[in-house]
# Entry
Amino acid sequence: MTDQQQADLRHDEVEAGTQTVLAAPSIDVTNARQNSLWSDAWDSLRRNPLFWIGAVLGLVFVLMALIPQVFARGADPRACNLANSNQKPSAEHWFGFDQQGCDYLANVVYGARNSLIIGLLAVLVVLVLGVLVGAVSGFYGGMIDSVLSRITDIFYALPLILGALVVLRSGTIGRGVVAVAIALAAFGWMTAMRLVRSQVIAVKSSDYVAAARAMGASNRRILLRHILPNAVAPVLVYTTITIGVLIAAEATLTFLGVGLQRPAISWGLQIENGQSLLRTAPHLVLFPSLILTTTVMAFIMMGDALRDALDPRQRA
Amino acid sequence: MGRYIARRLLLTIPVLIGASFLIFAMVYALPGDPIRALGGDRPLAPAVVAQLRDQFNLDDPLLIQYVKYVGDLLQGDFGTDFRGREVLDTIEQRLPVTVKLTVVAIVFEAVIGIIAGVLAGIRRNGFLDNLVLVSSTIVVSVPILVLAFVSQFVLGVKFGWFPIAGINDGWYSFLLPGLVLAAGSLAYVARLTRTSVAENLRADYVRTARAKGLRNRDVVIRHTLRNSLIPVVTFIGADIGTLMGGAIVTETVFNLPGIGRAIFDSVQAQEGAVVVGIVTLMVFFFIFFNLVVDVLYAVLDPRIRYD
Amino acid sequence: MTRPELSEHASPAALPGTPVLEVDDLHVEFRTRSGVVNAVNGVSYSLAAGETLAILGESGSGKSVSAQAIMGILDTPPAVITGGGIWFEGRDLLQQPAEEQRKVRGPGISMIFQDALSSLNPVYSVGYQIGEMFRAHRGMSKKDAKARAVELMDRVRIPAAKSRVNDYPHQFSGGMRQRVMIAMAIALDPRVLIADEPTTALDVTVQAQVMDLLKELQRDTGMGLILITHDLGVVNEVADNVAVMYAGRIVERGTVDDVFSDPAHPYTDGLMGSVPQVEAKGGRLQPIVGQPPNLAAIPSGCPFHPRCARRRLGAAAAPGKDCAADVPPLRLVVPGREAACHYSEEVLGV
# Structure
């Protein structure tokens, strides 16, 4: 434990005491501690070029998903002319044309929206599942923890792509954007659960939670006001990185033929189509790959920068 | 230690059963009638269909089907696919390919990852350190799918340095797919090693080693690397299990007839018995290597005792 | 050859023998991104065989940094030795190539640290770590080295040494771990042993045992002992001479009895007033006001002047003795006593 953390803990103990004895309404100790953590983190983030590169790339990606027509330079992804089939990139059409003779820039740009929706939706479900199961498991311990941890182990033993592949192929939940997101989340929540669980266990046994408990704070209050705020930092780092990972996983599933289907526009579909034309028209694989990679990198860079900022031990 | 291993093995059983049931339930919820699909254009005689359905227990409730399946499994019978081919034969034929691929990947991961990480960690903030930091961020960010295609196109098609697909060139065929499969873990190993070495170099016991007048080589190798590599070695150990199950994309892109490719094909062909059999085996490997790592941890770090 | 403990006055000059170690005007600075930190600013002292010299000071006074400079184990960068000399057995170590310096560490000068748990490598047995001294410097085989390790563990009175030689540091108690450190440090009969806060992390009763052990080993071997500490009690019990450090300088030096009974520097005086003393029951403890100096911006003149109750500034000061402008040199105040204060005579009341 660093001196700072120790000082924080002591501060919390004192505050936890005063709070109940004087019935002071709501200067929550955890808030004060969190505030300094976040302002320190922001100071460190601001000075990290990695964070800014990631943030700018991420912003471009989000804008692309929101207003694709601006990035597509006016081209309609579905206005195709077979005469242009597989044409190479040109000054007029930066990314060339695909096999059907559709403007490829427009297609790649319009692919961002599905990626973003699936990434965000899947990570949301991951968070809900992970935080819920993890918090309950860590907080109550005992039999509940054993059972929930074992269930987590079961899912953990199945690789993400494999599990999602089987679920989507079974067709029970369809093949749409929501289905893909749910399939990914169903096999991707375990790390979040373990993260939250270990944080909860660590904070639960700390002195200031013992103090709060001694002062008669309820379980619900301890969990919501003391324990969960402490888990926010690592979960935030994990979430940021995971959005990138899930976007890549979506493309992979779609490529394997169990994700999104035409007429949906998706980078995975574009890579899959381009695959057979790799020798004659490599740009068909190159452009969606490039933009997919850049997007994933944006989230991973932001996540890395966040981790450096939020974990003082890692600071140089 | 023995008791710990026994307890861990015991805990493994519910996970193994749970995971195989999960996959079993999902697989047998696959829509469509595989038996009818088998007949193709010409419908099979109703008697034949009934006989096949009976043979594969398709008319039993799911749980009964699963219990019968596990019963057979425990006697070493993985069942047959719909064409009558033993699943065990498929595994025996496919597993060596995946094992070779994993071996190549782990070697890349360990050798390149550790060397890069050590060089970066020893000279923190130096040129090599920044190079490793930047390149590992990039490598981690490239989806394996993209990496597979780009390397296949550039190194295979353009330069012709590596075979593009298949396994006709012996170990040489596995170099490129192995590197692709290892890439993400390799970058992670490099980072883990870097952090670990840099942290340990600042440790008090390294200062002690210097104060003892040890040669610099001994200070670095015996008192820094030996300690730094504990988390790295355990990560690599656990990664064996992960890589074996994660080869679906690599094996598909490079057309390697391993178990990843077999799973993909079987899911498409709705060959439930093959999917469940192979996945169960993979889960077993995954759990096994995680157990090995826990034991390894205690061997490498005397502070860890499980009793 | 050294005076018995708690004996009456003996001046440093009265100690026999030529010095084994001489530190001459040592300067160390840390060059960090946020600026240069002047950790050691012209420290000189000498140590005779069999002598125990205590270096006393707050954290940040430069006492540990100067010791690590002597050992040649400063982290460079950021630390840089910018001047001075460290003379050991007739040679200036700072002028020696790295390999020669290394050969001195262990057989010539060795060091023990405050926290034995973190200072011992957790993944090697204590026998291995003690034996390493013989393997690195004497080229001994692994087996012989381990046998010597057992002997040393016996010598520092670790019970059942033979059966514990293969145990790991975490399996020992704090006091026993510090004994392991000591065994390692004395393995090659060094001429000088530097003990950096050797008992700070230990229980009081164990502290006394470890100090007794150190003194006993010193009597047996005649090695010089540099004891770095902020614990006045320990200094009083075991040291012959004491050097008080403040802001990277020595501000007072003399025999322990002299310095403790009658300080010549206001900082030393403050230190004496800030600890409870058995003789002075009922008196109030007087903490030294203010903060330890920021080594990146050491106050002008006497570095202690912002905290000093006796400071004289401007017109109140004697010519050339303005505490905020003129750096007081370390000078002989009375025979056997040096202090770096313009007004030491007043402090002493002579």
Summary: Residues 104-140 of chain A form the longest helix (37 residues). Chain A is about 70% helix and 0% strand.
